[in-house]
Design goal:
Layout: E1 2-3, H1 15-26, H2 33-39, E2 43-48, E3 57-61, H3 66-75, E4 78-82, H4 87-99, E5 104-108, E6 125-132, E7 136-140, E8 148-152, H5 153-161, E9 172-176, H6 188-200, H7 208-218, H8 222-225, H9 229-241, H10 251-262, H11 268-297, H12 301-325
Antiparallel strand pairs: 1-6, 2-3, 4-9, 5-6, 5-9, 6-7, 7-8
Helix pairs in contact: 2-10, 6-12, 7-12, 9-11, 10-11, 11-12
Length: 327
């Protein structure tokens, strides 16, 4: 049996920030989940729909692993990433780090994990691995999934080898902090401004505040868009409000990040952004409830109301990011 010593197995709300927390605490850097999410410029928005999709997808964060890359670059951390098509090489990449006493982050498909509560394919799931024996891998996942958990080595291999949307080629990674630990306080403003710039200037209309506005136009049609609205709409609501988002499609996490920053940086622009994201978080929870109600009742009035709230959200989040861009 190989087990990395002194691992803090705290599970958080979101998978990638949970993994980052495990890896960074092992390096002596203990940051809150909102701070990890915000310093990684994690907040975003995407509305995605195509003929091949059963139902539209709403996303509230940057694509998988971009948060990790952003955070490592911002804090000057050494990020070593292994990717390969060879299962044998993939296992060697992980085992070598664990044998050397270092926890490893893994991107994989959660469907194949023995402990996972929902049997759906999601190739952008991230976990921290801190040990293994002849049969099992020992992982840290989110608090809702159990925190410190284990899965069979065979299941882990299948999860890492899966191919499909958002998957990576057996991706594993480690983080190493420099000799003198970085000061997150000094990096707050660059992280916020980078996030605001991307949100305010999306390359296509499906992203950022423009994407929220587009969603406002499309949501009232969702009963007609779905072949099974009693399943599709409540599932969409769960993905917004729970399913590892920290609530309100990641807006709760960003609100709390801005609140934490406001204790460290005295800025009216920061306080404005925090106030507006507090309002936005409440409204996203309202949207999720309206979408769920429409699926359960079949009454389109809930979706019309959700569309109105989304129009307001597009404005609120644009105004918030404009204020934050002036930091």
């Amino acid at each position: 049996m190989t087990m990395v010593k002194d691992i803090d197995v705290r599970g958080m709300q979101h998978c990638e920030t949970t993994t980052l927390g495990v890896l960074l605490r092992h390096e002596g850097l203990d940051l809150s989940e909102p701070m990890l999410f915000g310093l990684g410029s994690g907040l975003s928005f995407i509305y995605w729909d195509s003929k091949g999709m059963g139902f539209p997808f709403l996303g509230g964060r940057v694509k998988p692993f971009e948060l990790t890359r952003n955070l490592a670059a911002l804090l000057g951390l050494e990020l070593l990433v292994g990717e390969t098509t060879s299962p044998r090489k993939a296992w060697h990449n992980v085992a070598a780090a664990l044998d050397a006493g270092r926890p490893v982050g893994l991107q994989l498909d959660s469907y194949h994990l023995d402990y996972f509560g929902t049997e759906v394919h999601f190739g952008g799931h991230v976990v921290a691995m801190y040990g293994y024996d002849e049969r099992n891998a020992y992982l840290v996942d989110t608090a809702p999934q159990g925190g410190a958990v284990s899965t069979s080595l065979a299941g882990l291999a299948r999860a890492r080898a899966e191919r499909g949307p958002m998957t990576a080629k057996h991706r594993s990674f480690t983080l190493t902090a420099p000799g003198s630990l970085p000061s997150p306080r000094d990096r707050i403003i660059p992280a916020i401004k980078s996030c605001a710039d991307a949100f305010l200037n999306p390359p296509i209309a499906n992203l950022g505040h423009r994407g929220i506005g587009k969603t406002a136009e499309q949501v009232p049609k969702w009963l007609q868009r779905s072949d099974n609205p009693r399943e599709d709409l409540p599932r969409a609501a769960v993905l917004m409000e729970r399913a590892g988002t920290g609530g309100a499609l990641f807006r709760n996490l960003y609100r709390d990040f801005l609140a934490e920053c406001a204790q460290l940086v005295d800025s009216s622009h920061l306080r404005t952004g925090h106030s507006l994201y507090a309002e936005a978080a409440t409204l996203w929870t309202q949207v999720a409830a309206l979408v769920a109600a429409a699926g359960e009742s079949g009454d389109a009035k809930h979706l019309v109301q959700a569309g109105s709230v989304l129009h307001e959200l597009s404005r609120i989040e644009r105004d918030a990011m404009q204020a934050l861009s002036m930091l």
